[in-house]
Amino acid sequence: MTPSRETFEARLRAIGAERYHDKHPFHLRLHSGGCSPDEVRAWVINRYYYQSRIPMKDAAFMSRVEDPDLRRAWVSRLLDHDGHPSDGERREGGIVRWLRLAEAVGLDPAYVASCDGVLAGTRFAVDAYVRFVRETPLLEAVAASLTELFAPKIHADRIEGLLKHYAFANDQSLSYFRKRLDEAPKDVAFGLGYVLDHADTLEKQDAAAAALTFKTDVLWSQLDALEHAYVTPARIPPGAWRPGTGLLPVAAE
């Protein structure tokens, strides 16, 4: 017998309770003020790679969708990151706001946007997610996005922690996270509803749960890569960003 919607939703939420990356030691230090300036910069650089690939992931998903209603519902995710056309001008999206954070922590936004210096572990994890969405059944691709169920809490905790502990943190530099507090609930409601509606057999529920588990592994692996490379004792691999590079020039006195 197929478990009820309520039982299945509880199963999905339990995955986040156990595996979401808010429990990773790197995030716990970041939110409590325990990261050095260079550790924060390394996180900003590597997380940008993930942010920049989200609209590519969404475009890959939409290219496979035959239902116009689903495409119309999904396109807002792409625009939330890339920006919205409005009255002939582009309203900024999440990628622009992330580069504002990069500048606030002393990084050259052009360097961050180039993705030079991104850890290989970050690339492998993020590229695996884009490939997963491009190749798996639509139900599993949507289910993988349901880490959004747990994102509002991590954004709220991050805003509170960064404002409390870091001089660079203010409304402007943290605008990415504040905006996601408004955007994420819409995405969560649609994505969760889609998965609950379409996972109508135990086999499909198992596949959706496995997809969400995979996505938590993607997020956790990115932080593992940061932890290994930049936290004492640092083990920065060849080709990765090194402290002192990619920074904004210091203004002359």
TrEMBL record:
Protein name: Pyrroloquinoline-quinone synthase
NCBIfam families xref list: PQQ_syn_pqqC
Reaction catalysed by this enzyme: 6-(2-amino-2-carboxyethyl)-7,8-dioxo-1,2,3,4,7,8-hexahydroquinoline-2,4-dicarboxylate + 3 O2 = pyrroloquinoline quinone + 2 H2O2 + 2 H2O + H(+)
Pfam families in the record: TENA_THI-4 (PF03070)
Entry function: Ring cyclization and eight-electron oxidation of 3a-(2-amino-2-carboxyethyl)-4,5-dioxo-4,5,6,7,8,9-hexahydroquinoline-7,9-dicarboxylic-acid to PQQ.
Enzyme class: oxidoreductase
GO BP terms, alphabetized: pyrroloquinoline quinone biosynthetic process
